Please model this.
Amino acid sequence: MAGSGSAHLRAPEEVLLRVEDLVVEFPAGHGRRVHAVSGVSFDVARGETLGIVGESGCGKSTAARALMQLPAPLGGSIRLDGVELTGLRGETLRRTRRRLQMIFQDPISSLNPRRRVRDIVAEGPRVWGTGEERVDEMLEAVGLDPATASDRRPHEFSGGQCQRISIARALVLDPEVVICDEPVSALDVSVQAQILSLLEELKKRYGLTLVFIAHDLAVVKNVSDRVLVMYLGKTCELASGDTLVRRPAHPYTRALLASVPRSGLALPPADRLISGEPPSPVTPPSGCRFRTRCPAAAPRCAAEEPLMRRIGPDQWVACHHPQTPGREEPPVS
Model:
């Protein structure tokens, strides 16, 4: 539904990246479609980190890749600093992509195993003809010694070191927005903490704006200014990290938090807040897409899609019966 996710959008002058009613679908054969992202909206202020969280298959990574037009969205709007990205082609799209870079989930498979580290990081500057002066700076910035790392290949490094190389490759072109697509999920817990601290340090040093994708709500909360919760291609809730943990409003958010060990919340066990498996994105449920797994679902949930509504100064939810006190504002039409 057009505009169903736009309640949280800021004034244009405050926004670096704005996404409105994003739709991404894929063919599934026999005339069917995978409804991967269905009308998602969000914005990101300059210097902010927006976290996007949800179960595998919820559409969070698809939404993130659509920012790069990979794949190109079927509908909606993506604006970077006021410039519309959807519909761009050829050289114009190529130049715009330089302002957005990605860090991928699997650091080892995302690096060419046959190339030396210096060539991997320098590939972007060579393509753009901007010179390789920043290559050593970026390697040092991510904690690698250019003198010893430059001539080695990815297989000679650990997973955490490979992710540092990936980060250097993403930053060497001086992007405005860095999309982090589950950048620590393939790493050991101790290494995860190191990479998250590194990203926060680099964000401050280079004035980066981050979109951080993960399925672990605890990780996302710790690195994000605000958190967007997605389920089956739809937005469930948006709030600051602290608010989301203190007062989760959507039943799905509560279930995610209940599955986090030592969340500190007096929540029922996760299996009482969510049941069964997610429905197929080829045939999503009518009304609220979470209703088939929600213990509080009512007839209205099947008949009417909930719209994003504001329930607090920094909290919005798409639910007919949010689980938190506070005055609700009218749905956005």
